[in-house]
Records
---
Amino acid sequence: MDEKIIRPVDLKEKRLARRWTQEELARKLGITSLHVSRIEAGRRNISFALALKVARVFGSITVQHEGEVFLIKKNK
């Protein structure tokens, strides 16, 4: 999977469901709130490594890569 063409589909919805600010999510992921904002706005894609971090934080993340949708899920 190419490192920079993964588009998160449900990041904002997951964040809002937990009532977290972009700053809170950014701290949990080790990135800036500006980075979170750009990802949620669709102006920035993420690496596979960051997608895995998101899956660890939320339990799963839905991403799109080359027109296909994938669910990355944390094993319990």
---
Amino acid sequence: MRVILRRVCQGSAEVDDVVQEVYYKVLVLDGVAHIREPRAFLVRTAKNIVIDRLRREAIVNIESMASLDELEVEDVSASPERVAQGRSELKWVIGLIANLPDRCKEVFRARRIYGLSQNETAQTLGISEGIVEQETMKGMNLIADMIARVGVHHDAGTTNVAVRARKKKNVHH
């Protein structure tokens, strides 16, 4: 960060001041758990400090303004829309899994959600590896069937209701 700041600031003293100000801003935060990309956060904070300093100055150094682009960091965090969409998709998938028969659901969760191996799943659930394989395939086929019948919905509640309604129809006919 100091290397980039040297291009933007008027001297090493100003670089030190900006770095100190960045440290101060981090220290006064209530917590840092929300910071997913620490480097990006620090660079963004430094950039904001430099911009504030430039705004306060009566004369702006053209070279400093041109070098500000070097402080750009790609925002790698998910947008609020993407987070909401991801949560909706997760609810939808959980709704599909909830509609599986009990043993199939247990095996499917162990294998696909918790990432257990076939052997670990068999030992954990007290069943044979062959049954684990069969139940995993059965779960995948049932989920594929549910998707084919109901379609792709991103609302878990809608999926559960629609799948249960179709199951009841199939039982009565």
---
Amino acid sequence: MKKTLSLINESRFKQADIVFVADGQANLPPEFIEEFRRTKDKKKFECLSVLIGGETDFQTVQKLSDWVISADDFMTADEAFDI
């Protein structure tokens, strides 16, 4: 996520899209979440998160995302392709 944020900050483009696929173990410090949200507002990008597995930190990921999809495995995450 840090590298993604860095690439977006360095880009001259706005309105990028991020697809964040994770096992749901989002150990993100509050400082990073705040920086991500500030950059998201500034650069006008959207983030779709796909959480794979039963143990997911939905609330943390929701702070970063416009959409959050939970699935048991990647093959059942087909809802992500409907957005």
